[in-house]
Amino acid sequence: MKNFKKNSIILLIITLTVLVFVLKDDFPAIMESLKNANLIYLLLALLCFFIALLFEAKAYQEIIEEYQFDYSLKKSYRMLLITKFFNGITPFSSGGQPMQIYMLKKEGIRLTKATNIIVQNFIIYQAALVVFGIFAVVYNHYHQIFTSIPLLRHLVTVGFIMNTLVMMGLVIVSFSNKFNHFLVRKGISILSKIHIVKDKEKSLNKWNERVDDFYEGTEYLKNNPFLCVRTFLYNLIYLALMYVMPFFVILGLNHGPLDGVTPLKTIISSAYVLIMGSFVPIPGASGGIEYGYFKFFGNFIKGSLLKASLLIWRTISYYVPMVVGGILFNIHMKRDDSKCE
């Protein structure tokens, strides 16, 4: 809880700093753009987010149910909104997956199986993310929609490599039973030597059993290719809807001819922004995401429209789900506390 409070304070400071940076030069013009915004388009952008989350929730639900657990789409949707809160207040979005495992365990799913479910879904999500990244990089290579800036190119390259390595690492851990047993043996041996593990044999047997359970679940998923394809497509749709959101935001704020902005260019730009922001070690990748948005979307829109669209887009895609997730988490915890009384 202390870490959550600390991260929340850090996030608040960074958010205020970013707001000052964004608003300081064009405050009257930005306020005028927001005041005259077309709410229909902004609601469409908000709707994009909640529909996108529906596809992500469907992917989770189908993987969970393949492990022979009855889990409703409503529960999956609620879990993902709570995940947005924990991802939003932790560096590298590292708090979401542990919370998902905790919530599945509270539903009566064994820790090993819950971990397996989350890892397998994350692999499929990473695969979709990498595929979108490849598409964005290839499209920009042939159509040159962005001005070539060495720093941005390097940042995107690092982000793309990191996402690919994460996916490859998860695949190795998930599908190599021998490698996992090797890691367990070495880990237990080291912990035993420094007297953290007292009963070496007992710990080895327990962790080897968990590794076998994990591998068994992975094999089950591997032998269900149609499930992998479906959940992969769900994640692609999720990302496409998330990436197209700025297009509706820009439409809602722009009151003249919209030159050079198309849904496809918006999707490509968003993919670049999210790839670059994926390795920023700050809750919500704050600062890095805003910088990427200015640099990539700045190729199509300028001035107060660029800054106002950033504020609305970040509010819809980051702050709204984080607030809703935080409220749902509090309700969830109170419900659990009342069951324990």
Structure description:
With 341 residues, the chain is an all-alpha fold. It has one domain. 81% of the residues lie in helices and 0% in strands. It contains 13 helices and no strands. The relative contact order is 0.15. The mean pLDDT is 81.
Number of helices: 13
Q: What best-fitting shape do the alpha-carbon axes yield?
A: elongated
Q: Which class best fits the helix and strand makeup?
A: mainly alpha
Number of discrete domains:
1
How far is the N terminus from the C terminus? 22 Å
Order of helices and strands: HHHHHHHHHHHHH
E-strand count: 0
Question: What portion of residues is helical?
Answer: over 70%
* Biggest beta sheet attributes: none
Unreliable stretches covering 5 or more consecutive residues: none
Radius of gyration: 22 Å
Strand content: under 5%
Mean pLDDT: 81
List keywords for this structure.
mainly alpha, elongated, 13 helices, 341 residues
Please specify the SSE layout and strand pairing.
Elements: H1 2-23, H2 27-35, H3 39-66, H4 73-88, H5 96-106, H6 111-143, H7 150-175, H8 177-193, H9 200-222, H10 225-253, H11 263-277, H12 288-297, H13 303-340
Helix pairs in contact: 2-13, 3-4, 3-6, 3-10, 3-13, 4-5, 4-13, 5-6, 6-7, 6-9, 6-10, 6-11, 7-11, 8-9, 10-11, 10-13, 11-12, 12-13
